[in-house]
UniProtKB/TrEMBL annotation:
UniProt keyword list: Methyltransferase, S-adenosyl-L-methionine, Transferase, tRNA processing
GO molecular function terms listed in the Swiss-Prot or TrEMBL record: tRNA (5-carboxymethoxyuridine(34)-5-O)-methyltransferase activity
Catalytic activity: 5-carboxymethoxyuridine(34) in tRNA + S-adenosyl-L-methionine = 5-methoxycarbonylmethoxyuridine(34) in tRNA + S-adenosyl-L-homocysteine
Family: Belongs to the class I-like SAM-binding methyltransferase superfamily. CmoM family.
SUPFAM superfamilies membership: S-adenosyl-L-methionine-dependent methyltransferases
Function: Catalyzes the methylation of 5-carboxymethoxyuridine (cmo5U) to form 5-methoxycarbonylmethoxyuridine (mcmo5U) at position 34 in tRNAs.
Annotated positions binding S-adenosyl-L-methionine: R26, G52, G53, D73, H119
Enzyme Commission no: 2.1.1.-
Designated name of the protein: tRNA 5-carboxymethoxyuridine methyltransferase
NCBIfam families hit by this protein: PRK11036.1
Pfam families: Methyltransf_31 (PF13847)
InterPro entries from the UniProt entry: Cmo5U_methylTrfase, Methyltranfer_dom, SAM-dependent_MTases_sf
Superkingdom per UniProt: Bacteria
Length: 264
C-alpha cells in the first residue's frame, strides 16, 4: 500500500479544502488550540516540523510568528506551492522545505524539534503507528505534538444525516481511489491508544466542525458563519461533541522522562 500523493489534484485540494467555510472553520478552531500551545512554550522561537504540511498554510503562519519551520510533503506540487507562498509572504528565511514522505524525515533533520504539526495526514497513511513512532523519534523530550485526524465517527454521522443507510451498512467503503475522501478514516479511541502506547501524554482533545457539516440548510455555513464559529468554540472541547467532529485535534507532549521504562 502506498500513501496518498496529491500531485494530481493539488488545485482541487486547495479549492475544496481551503477555499470554503470548511477550511476557514478548521483553521479557526485549530489556531485556538495552537495559540494556547505556543503560549505554554513562552516567547522563544521554536523549531517546528510540519509533517505532510501540504501548501503550508499553517507552517507559513508559524513562520510569520518568528518560528523556524521545516515543511515536508511527499507531493512536489504541494512543496512548490508552499515555497511560492512563503516567498510572497516574506518568510522564506524562516522556512525549509523537503520533498519526502513523513516516514523519511529523520534523514533531513539536523536536530530534534520542539513542536510537530501533523494535520490531516494520519487518515492517508497505510502504516499509522510507524509514522507516529517516526515523529516521536524526532521530537525533543518536553516537546509537543499537534495531531489532527479525520474522524470515522463524523463520517458515519454525516452519512446517516444524509440518509445513506446502505452505504453505512456496507461499512462505508471508499468508492474511488483518487479523491479527497480519506483512505483510512480513524477511530478516535484507537488513535488515542496509539499515542499513549508510543509514550505521548495527551493534553487536549478538540472536535473540529462539530456542527458545520451537519446543518440541513447549507447556506447557513456561510450566511451565519460568525454565529456558527462561536457555537463551535463553545462546545467543541466537550463530549459528546469532540467525538462527533469531522476532524479531531489532539495535543500531546513527549515527557522529559520516558515513563514507559518504569512500567517494565
Amino acid at each position: 500500500m502506498r500513501d496518498r500523493n496529491f500531485d494530481d489534484i493539488a488545485e482541487k485540494f486547495a479549492r475544496n479544502i481551503y477555499g470554503t467555510t470548511k477550511g476557514q472553520l478548521r483553521q479557526a478552531i485549530l489556531w485556538q488550540d495552537l495559540d494556547r500551545l505556543l503560549d505554554a512554550f513562552g516567547s522563544q522561537p521554536l523549531r517546528v516540523l510540519d509533517a505532510g504540511g501540504g501548501e503550508g498554510q499553517t507552517a507559513i503562519k508559524m513562520a510569520q510568528r518568528g518560528h523556524h519551520v521545516t515543511l515536508c510533503d511527499i507531493s512536489g506540487e504541494m512543496i512548490s506551492r508552499a515555497t511560492q507562498v512563503a516567498a510572497e509572504k516574506g518568510v522564506s528565511g524562516n522556512m525549509h522545505f523537503e520533498q519526502c514522505a513523513v516516514q523519511d524525515i529523520t534523514q533531513h533533520l539536523e536536530s530534534p524539534v520542539d513542536l510537530i504539526l501533523f494535520h490531516a495526514v494520519l487518515e492517508w497513511v497505510a502504516a499509522p503507528q510507524e509514522v507516529l513512532q517516526t515523529l516521536w523519534s524526532v521530537l525533543r523530550p518536553g516537546g509537543a505534538l499537534s495531531l489532527m485526524f479525520y474522524n470515522a465517527n463524523g463520517l458515519l454521522m454525516h452519512n446517516m444525516v444524509a440518509g445513506n443507510f446502505d452505504y453505512v451498512q456496507a461499512g462505508m467503503p471508499k468508492k474511488k481511489r483518487r479523491t479527497l475522501s480519506p483512505d483510512y478514516p480513524r477511530e478516535p479511541q484507537q488513535v488515542y491508544g496509539w499515542l499513549e502506547e508510543t509514550g505521548w501524554q495527551i493534553t487536549g482533545k478538540t472536535g473540529v466542525r462539530v456542527f458545520h457539516d451537519y446543518l440541513r440548510e447549507k447556506h447557513q455555513q456561510r450566511d451565519c458563519y460568525e454565529t456558527l464559529l462561536a457555537l463551535e468554540t463553545r462546545y467543541c472541547r466537550q463530549e459528546p461533541y469532540i467525538s462527533l467532529g469531522r476532524y479531531i485535534h489532539v495535543t500531546a507532549i513527549k515527557p522529559l522522562v520516558d515513563t514507559r521504562k518504569n512500567d517494565e
